[in-house]
Specification:
Length: about 260
């Protein structure tokens, strides 16, 4: 297979660039960026700051789709906009240099994180914009006039391992009834306050996340993923809160009262 070229934008970040000190570099980005909690709250992870790690990998995927990578005239450097900012509201870019290791496939090698005003970015005639995920802003907001449809049996059967431990041993009929009641309560909640539904980006589509409280009415146990159709919404699946936060953070930092890292 021929070595990749400077304007190649493979789907996977790992095919795009070498980043051998990924964990250290993620820590450096967290220190440079506006203060934010990037740790999982409910799920064990083998990586530090897994939310930020996933954010970088999946943001690059969208950047590649939109071809928002700037390459220097000599093809020795490139950069892309991470969508993150410093505490002084300055945009942060990933800067990469040409990979000089001949037997490794990616053209690029991670160099460092740079603020928009730093000298390193003078290599580029123009700087790329951050990733964009939607054309119609209305997809971000729940239309409370529409009904919610849900195949409860399917959602429960496919996701029982994501439920709180005490509920996993329930018989399927009982758990389906519990989920049905929680779904109805959740839909009434978001109809009273449409901002409760938080947008997420998944496989090219903006969906909405709705809190599903199964054991305590004041605390969400899962996030119900809701897809928009022309005349109704459909509950497609449910996610753990850490999974939901990962997906929601791709679009924006959730600023809500139930989905927190």
């Amino acid at each position: 297979m021929p070595k990749k070229q400077p304007y190649d934008l493979p789907e996977s970040f790992y095919d795009f660039a070498m980043m051998p000190k990924f964990n250290e570099d993620v820590d450096a980005l967290a220190n440079l960026a506006e203060n934010e909690d990037w740790e999982y709250r409910f799920t064990a992870s083998s990586h530090a700051k897994p939310i930020l790690r996933n954010y970088i990998i999946h943001t690059y995927g969208r950047i590649a789709e939109e071809k928002k990578v700037a390459v220097s005239a000599d093809e020795n450097f490139c950069c892309w906009n991470t969508g993150l900012i410093t505490s002084t509201q300055e945009q942060i870019y990933m800067l990469l240099s040409r990979n000089k290791i001949d037997n490794l496939d990616p053209y690029w090698h991670f160099s460092k994180w740079v603020r928009r005003g730093e000298w390193d970015l003078n290599k580029f005639a123009s700087l790329p914009d951050m990733a964009h995920y939607f054309e119609d802003p209305s997809v971000l907001v729940l239309d409370t006039r529409k009904e919610l449809r849900m195949n409860v049996e399917h959602v429960v059967a496919d996701n029982v391992e994501r439920f709180p431990e005490p509920l996993r041993s329930m018989n399927s009929f009982g758990l389906q009834n519990l989920v049905s009641g929680a779904r109805d309560a959740a839909w009434q909640r978001v109809r009273r306050n449409y901002k409760t539904a938080i947008p997420q980006y998944y496989q090219g589509q903006v969906q909405l996340l709705v809190p599903l409280a199964l054991t305590d009415p004041g605390r969400a146990d899962l996030a119900l993923v809701v897809e928009r159709f022309s005349d109704f919404y459909r509950a497609a699946t449910c996610l753990t809160l850490d999974m939901a936060y990962n997906n929601a953070r791709q679009l924006a930092r959730p600023d809500r009262d139930w989905l927190v890292p």
